[in-house]
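Because discrete structure vocabularies remain unfamiliar, it helps to consider an illustrative case, giving the amino acid sequence and backbone structure tokens:
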Amino acid sequence: MASSRTLGTFRLPPLPTIREIIKLFRLQAVKQLSQNFLLDLRLTDKIIRKAGNLTNAYVYEVGPGPGGITRSILNAGVAELLVVEKDSRFIPGLQMLSDAAPGKLRIVHGDVLTFKIERAFPESLKRQWEDDPPNVHIIGNLPFSVSTPLIIKWLENVSQRNGPFTYGRTRMTLTFQKEVAERLTATTGSKQRSRLSIMAQYLCDVQHILTIPGQAFVPKPEVDSGVVHFTPLPQPRIEQPFKLVEKVVQNAFQFRRKYCHRGLGMLFPEAQRLESTGKLLESADVDPTLRPTQLTVSHFKSLCDVYRKMCDEDPHLFAYNFREELRQKSEKRG
């Protein structure tokens, strides 16, 4: 392997600007795919600096598009950059970058939602979960349409320590719609507190590190963007299966303006709802008149632990879905 000095001092040769690349390959952002391009390399450099020290790192970039952030990552002295791009229109522009950075940039024409990153990087990078994070980073300016399902998928991977987290506590630096970034980092009691806040914060240290104004993108979206940095925790704040935590949290936030007992009650069949909800809240020591936004991660830990015990006692409980019960009732009436 080359010395860190030579890796650290790599700079891309002069290249057409991102604006020129867009013109050259006649690229246009597709509105249905919620694509927006970052053209200002000073801004992409700033995002990469905020991601941490990438010298000799292995980086997985999702949705590189015309390659603005890609250039900044390559200039940060990485050992290798792997980009996964679904839209074939962007491949020739990325190939130009690959030619300018021999042996540094690997391009995969594929879908981030199905790509198997766990086989992509050397085994030697793997770290024990309790150790410092590995020298592997995920970075991306995500299309708004896939950002929420993708982060939920990755959070599930964190909980199971698989996918990108096969290597250990892989850090992520991702761009979201500002509102989503605010939800991910919202504190207890804030208006933006939501399902996403709890799901992210019970598994990761989550920081909103940068806000990018809409006018920095082409085409200009109607909203600003927020860059969020995730570092998986050595120990999750709730030690229950991801799907169980997700179910409790989703139900709690169903009626976000009402008292929390209203949404949590939907975890139980109607016939036993009142009694079981009372038992859940009492055993978890949670005030039934708190709003969902006022519940802390510790509250959710207690609720999930108690709900797990109730599911162990009643094997059919976890499979219960109140919407299904409503549907069956309306069919009977019809």
Notes: Residues 144-160 form the longest helix (17 residues).
